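Tip: read the tokens left to right.
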């Protein structure tokens, strides 16, 4: 149609600018390797604007290649393309490279332990911890002095319980009271209510464990038969299971 820009003849000046833009792209692609074309010069590339794009377009392949080579210094890359003939602002180079710079890999960190995991680490014997659990527990205790004190108290009580050193209980209670840890302090206060019996239980090899186990077994049978049978059957089941143990 008349007046359509596509029907207009290409002016010599526009044709020349387009040709110089193509030549500039070839120069940029080969300049880093030292291959300069004899039919162009740096002075002829000053202020060139590639039609249909920006003045940075001919330099983008070079910038991308330098990024792939590991050069992430934006100021250094700007100086390099400036030496090749780029004359526009640094902000254009910076904005383009920030859009095309590869995103940094996310830092991988182990997930935080749960309360149940930490409780298991504190109450288990240190020798039973795995190679992965030991450094995690050590790092946790270094960051939390209160938890480190709690760990010492728990392991101290476990030592009395397994090695029957109940005579150390009064000293252990004093240390717990001095640390003023809420949960353990209340536990130690409960032990003081019947201190002699607790010391005897932590010292003597005899304990009420078998009796408590037998009572628990009888209660289990009773719950299984609730509403299904009377006392004679319950009595027979209790006696038969006791004889089989």
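Filled-in amino acids:
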């Amino acid at each position: 149609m008349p007046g359509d820009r596509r029907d207009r003849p290409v002016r010599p000046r526009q044709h020349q600018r387009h040709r110089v833009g193509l030549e500039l792209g070839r120069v940029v692609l080969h300049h880093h390797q030292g291959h300069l074309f004899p039919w162009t010069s740096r002075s002829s590339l000053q202020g060139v604007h590639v039609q249909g794009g920006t003045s940075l377009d001919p330099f983008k392949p070079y910038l991308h290649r330098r990024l792939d080579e590991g050069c992430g210094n934006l100021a250094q890359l700007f100086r390099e393309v400036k030496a090749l003939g780029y004359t526009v602002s640094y902000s254009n180079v910076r904005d383009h490279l920030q859009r095309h710079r590869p995103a940094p890999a996310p830092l991988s960190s182990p997930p935080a332990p749960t309360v149940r995991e930490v409780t298991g680490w504190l109450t288990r014997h240190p020798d039973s911890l795995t190679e992965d659990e030991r450094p995690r527990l050590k790092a946790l205790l270094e960051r939390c002095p209160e938890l480190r004190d709690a760990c010492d108290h728990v392991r101290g009580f476990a030592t009395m319980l397994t090695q029957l050193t109940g005579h150390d209980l009064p000293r252990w209670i004093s240390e717990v009271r001095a640390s003023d840890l809420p949960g353990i302090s209340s536990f130690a206060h409960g032990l003081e209510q019947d201190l002699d019996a607790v010391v005897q239980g932590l010292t003597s090899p005899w304990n009420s464990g078998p009796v408590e186990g037998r009572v628990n077994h009888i209660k289990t049978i009773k719950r299984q038969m609730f509403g299904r049978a009377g006392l004679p059957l319950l009595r027979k089941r209790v006696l038969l299971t006791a004889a089989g143990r």
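The two ends are 106 Å apart (CA to CA). The chain has three domains: 5-100, 115-203, 209-243.
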